[in-house]
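Hi V.,

You were right to ask for the full record rather than a summary. Here it is.
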Amino acid sequence: MINYIIKRLLLSIFILFAVSILLYILIRLIPQNFVEQKFASQIAQGVIKQEDIDRMLKLYGLADSIPKGYMKWLSNVFHGDLGMSFNFGMPVQEIIAKDMWISFGFSFVATILQFIIAIPLGIHSATHQYGASDYAVTIFTMMGISLPTFFLASLLLSVFSKSLGWFPYQGLVSSKIFEDSFAGKVDQFFDMAWHLILPIVTLVILSIGGLMRHTRTNMLEVLNADYIRTARAKGCSEKTVIYKHAFRNTMIPVVTMLAGILPGLFSGAMITEEVFAIPGIGRKAYKATTVGDIPFIMAYNMFLSILTIIGTLLSDLAYALVDPRVKITK
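Predicted structure:
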């Protein structure tokens, strides 16, 4: 097990190195750079001359060739400096450390709700195959899979915020000023939670479909296995057959999804955060991407790459916990 983990970590170093090269090249190949986008109107009007543009490109490090620019970025990373965000004017590590916890908060709640809702629905759908409830659940989940994020988020805002007025329209906190006291902090917490209900609902509706279909498909396959028929022949109750014998084996493919859960918790939901104006890391990444903020984009995506590698490793190790027959030997 230890040798396996060490080999995977060493391999991960090469993977991250390759990802960083490819990512930097793609960012630098964007048709417009940060300077051209920021001062587009002034450039079109002739207010800013070409020599001014060249000076700003050099100031931001955009005048260097791609290999030279990448080596500068890599050297700074090895010295613990992720750079200064072009767009936000702050050290990148400070922005990520500050804003990722907002995204983590509601993404974590949405993920928990996703599993609580999707897995029982998948099991119920599989045990009532071709029944009315199976069709109803399938239609509901397929609608969730098919709906674009911006459409669903805008629809929920229009209905429950603008029309009914049940929830705040956008943002994370109300304009109300909270007192610096325990009661004020409690009020602030519940106010933030109230603002996050619609974003959480959006994420849950969009995500339960895939997990539900995974669970249903795997459960149907397991229920047709010989050992399930044997368990029933021995007189085991249907509840024992489903939740003790079948469900554990159903979890094996579901564990594969763990690889994407970890980066998903910290990466934020770009479109959802943008529609609901939540100041999370996803919204910051969206704004940085649209203006070509190289330091932020590089740090953000490398952060997600590291989390993806860790998630994949944890997913592999979790197989042995779910199924004792799985042995990691190399």
